[in-house]
Write a structure and sequence with these properties.
Strand order of the largest sheet: 3-2-1-4
Number of helices: 4
Organism: Lepraria neglecta
GO molecular function, one term: acylglycerone-phosphate reductase (NADP+) activity
InterPro entries: NAD(P)-bd_dom_sf, SDR_fam
Protein name: NADPH-dependent 1-acyldihydroxyacetone phosphate reductase
Family: Belongs to the short-chain dehydrogenases/reductases (SDR) family.
CATH architecture: 3-Layer(aba) Sandwich
Bound molecules: NADP nicotinamide-adenine-dinucleotide phosphate
Radius of gyration: 19 Å
Structural class: alpha/beta
Shape: globular
């Protein structure tokens, strides 16, 4: 009598997950909601915020990596890039540049320094 034995390996252990980096993932915001939505779709989520304590709720989820990232700090951006390169072998699939601020007022009333600061964060 011949017996056959098949070993079925889940795809997720043999194929790298798609990856996404989302900035500005503080609890209650759009970045946090996107992080949860992508994680539910079996992606590796790199969730970032300038204050990591604001996204601790995401740290409990599988395939979510929390990184401290301030988009206005070159050193902070470079450190995150190196970490993500190492974890994805340089194959990050998506970037959601979500961290940002909004100023709602007539343009003539803008404080130019505040406007520059908003531009640096958002762009
Ligand atoms: N909600 C809306 O109706 C709406 C409308 C138009 C555009 N947007 C844009 O959509 C994005 C998300 O909106 P949201 O409502 O989820 O905003 P939110 O709750 O205020 O979240 C914004 C995220 O950006 C981060 N952030 C703000 N200023 C930063 C800075 N100087 N350096 C680093 N990180 C900074 C915040 O970090 P902290 O928690 O540390 O501040 C937070 O993680 C923002 O870019 C916003 O401008 C939103």
């Amino acid at each position: 009598m011949t017996s056959l034995c098949y070993f079925v390996t889940p795809l997720t252990t043999t194929m790298a997950l798609k990856s996404v980096l989302i900035t500005g993932c503080s609890a209650g915001g759009i970045g946090s909601a996107l992080a949860e939505a992508f994680q539910r779709r079996d992606m590796h989520v790199f969730a970032t915020a300038r204050d990591p304590s604001k996204m601790s709720h995401l740290g409990k989820l599988p395939n979510v990596t929390l990184l401290t990232l301030d988009p206005t700090s070159t050193a902070s951006v470079e450190a995150s890039v190196e970490r993500i390169k190492a974890e994805t072998s340089g194959t990050l699939d998506y970037l959601v540049n979500n961290a940002g601020q909004t100023i709602i007022m007539p343009t003539l009333d803008f404080d130019i320094e505040n406007a520059k600061s908003m531009y640096d964060i958002n762009v």
